[in-house]
Amino acid sequence: MADDPSGTPGSPASPAPRSAALFERARRVIPGGVNSPVRAFRAVGGTPRFIQRAQGAYLWDADGQRYIDYIGSWGPMILGHGHPAVLDAVEKAARDGFSFGAPTEREVELAEEILKLVPSAEQVRLVSSGTEAAMSALRLARGATGRSKIVKFEGCYHGHADALLVKAGSGLATFGHPTSAGVPPEVVQHTLVLTYNDVSELEAAFDAHGREIACVMIEPIAGNMNFVRASLPFMKRLRELCTQHGALLVFDEVMSGFRVALGSAQSLYARDLPGFQPDLSVFGKVIGGGMPLAAFAGPRAVMEQLAPLGGVYQAGTLSGNPVATACGLATLKEIQKPGFFEALSASTHSLTTGLLAAAQEAGVPMVGDCEGGMFGFFFPKHAGDFGGGLPQNYPQVMTTDGARFNRFFHAMLERGVYLAPALYEAGFVSAAHTPADIKATLEAAAAAFAAG
Ligand code: KE4
Known about the structure:
The protein has 452 residues and is α/β, with parallel strands linked by helices. Helix content is 36%, strand content 15%.
């Protein structure tokens, strides 16, 4: 999620005149012309494309240019845009009413559907954004444990709640510093930022603060560092230390949830670490199907400490919104259909291995990984970096070639392929992407690499 400092704003003039005009107009009335910073293309330079419409695997911008979409609204559009079952559900729900501020059956249905797919949780609370879900899970962990300290990892993004906008302190045991203006240092004084995948830092932190730590929040597959997996030894040790010290392990699966597997990333760790479960889980994106809906979930004993039963306050006017829940429920029904994830994983794997093959053919150092409908890739500055494997943490990601990424991004955009406009962001494939779309993408990549 971090802005790429090596970005080259002001890259080649955009061939998208209407987007350029709209961007100019937007910047007069919206800060930076966007309602979320990453959309402004500041990391990659150039003109952000103003999207007019989408269908299936495709986006069309204001100039009528079609793109194969590998952002999918940053993850939600796992079915592709405009899936008929989702459209029908949303249309019907909208006709029944947009919002009531009262409980509805569909919220119960969606909660039941989520819990069916998340064996680590017994109850779930619906909210409107991933930030809200992560912020609420954090408050719940502090309320449930009576502790203040929290641990996060450099490179992981959990939305923009104050306590989570933190970069590592100068030394291991020192607490974080705000990454954003407007966050008073005292707000982040309890947030400890460690290096992802570093067991020794984890053990030292728990040695120093174990009984004061309310929770450790982690992206199990860090899509905000593009695509970095928490190693099995690291995750195993993290689980052990949280259990030993009475800290809650919070899986931020806003991006990975129902995206990397039907059972989310936690099902992959449970497969490889028998009995593994997080204590709390945070979801978003896919469970809203593209509409404002997120959630946090966990054991009843913890969740029932939330208002109105318990002392941890949490609320939301549009939480469990009737139209958003219809969109999410229809999406979750579709992804459970037999063969859905096998097909999606095959498409994503074909794309990722094809990109790596095209880079190798062109003599360009490139590494990548994928899981389910999520993928990522990096351009190491030297072929042997990271031992030929993937970056394992944020500092290593920082050593990759941002300028090459930006050239590749624009070369692909000009060839009708819309990748994430920042090297720190993951990519997403939908069920609507066909083998022909993957083939066209790989042909564009070969041409992009040939262009240098
Ligand atoms: P939102 O508040 O944006 O719905 O969710 C915050 C969030 C929480 N946790 C994780 C793991 C996330 O990836 C996110 C949001 N992801 C970014 C993309 N990396 C959303 C795109 C944007 O900020 O515009």
